[in-house]
């Protein structure tokens, strides 16, 4: 995922995916002819073209934040955004010999910071808390993302793409957990309206935070990566993307447990769950994550601007 507007740039860094969002074929890295980035803790791997610092279930906020609020049991990751940034700092001696070398290296790289927020909000929601509890976290989450961006810029990052959250009300996990009256669902999408409103508010707050960062760091390109719009389009215009026209439904799940093919006691990979025959025809993989096909459409939209507030790829 080299910085496209600088010819010959070779480095690419992912400081943030929580373990599933990016580098699913076809990813931006592949679009540039680069290999999928190795995990940062991989042994005997080459990091000349970048690294993936993903942590499954990663949050914007540290675990102690949730523990203080009695939510520690529903945060099941091994680190946050700031854990990943520290891993990046720990790796620096392996690819640059001085502070200036590192800044020069990072200045030619694309940093993909997120998606963060979804797992932070899952902490209260999966604990059965009201949506208001998640709203209370929102300023802290957005500030955490903003602080992480500041730290990466201080390390020398010049090009960053910062994704918003997906429309949570469209995902089978939430649709299976929360039952609403008929008017609580989108007539065309079948999504939970109040959860999608929540996601939209987060994204609006994040965009405002990014505007402040752009004003503070005029020499840095900070791109907003949109997940919300493409997922809505997958549901409203599925044929455009090669998906089946249907209510939100997981490709991999437990059949016979409702319209969403999602069951908390038989999730994808667990006994009783099976995968659909052709995942390319679905946008939801397991009711929580997207399919590779869906990520591919989004990656191309980020690269060329359909799903970003400016395209990653810019002419010289």
From TrEMBL:
InterPro entries for this protein: GDSL, SGNH_hydro_sf
Coiled coil: none
Keyword Metal-binding (UniProt): no
Domain of life: Eukaryota
One term of GO molecular function: hydrolase activity, acting on ester bonds
Keywords for this protein: Glycoprotein
Protein family: Belongs to the 'GDSL' lipolytic enzyme family.
Full protein name: Esterase
């Amino acid at each position: 995922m080299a910085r496209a507007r600088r010819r010959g740039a070779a480095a690419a860094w992912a400081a943030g995916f929580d373990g599933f969002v990016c580098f699913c074929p076809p990813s931006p890295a592949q679009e540039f002819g680069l290999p999928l980035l190795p995990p940062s803790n991989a042994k005997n791997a080459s990091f000349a073209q970048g690294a993936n610092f993903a942590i499954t279930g990663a949050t914007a906020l540290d675990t102690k934040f949730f523990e203080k609020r009695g939510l520690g049991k529903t945060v099941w990751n091994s680190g946050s955004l700031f854990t990943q940034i520290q891993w990046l700092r720990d790796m620096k001696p392996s690819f640059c010999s001085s502070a200036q070398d590192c800044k020069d290296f990072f200045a030619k790289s694309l940093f993909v910071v997120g998606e963060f927020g979804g797992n932070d909000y899952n902490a209260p929601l999966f604990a059965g808390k009201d949506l208001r509890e998640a709203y209370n976290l929102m300023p802290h989450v957005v500030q955490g993302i903003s602080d992480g961006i500041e730290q990466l810029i201080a390390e020398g990052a010049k090009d960053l793409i910062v994704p918003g959250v997906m429309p949570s009300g469209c995902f089978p996990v939430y649709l299976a957990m929360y039952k609403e009256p008929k008017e609580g669902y989108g007539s065309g999408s079948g999504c939970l309206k109040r959860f999608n409103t929540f996601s939209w508010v987060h994204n609006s707050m994040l965009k405002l935070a990014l505007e402040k960062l752009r004003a503070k760091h005029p020499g840095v390109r900070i791109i907003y990566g949109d997940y919300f719009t493409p997922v809505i389009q997958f549901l409203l215009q599925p044929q455009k993307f090669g998906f089946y026209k249907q209510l939100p439904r997981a490709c991999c799940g437990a059949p016979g447990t409702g319209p969403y093919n999602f069951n908390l006691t038989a999730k994808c990979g667990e006994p009783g769950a099976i995968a659909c025959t052709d995942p390319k025809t679905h946008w939801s993989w397991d009711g929580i994550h997207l399919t590779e096909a869906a990520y591919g459409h989004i990656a191309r939209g980020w690269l060329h601007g359909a799903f970003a507030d400016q395209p990653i790829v810019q002419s010289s």
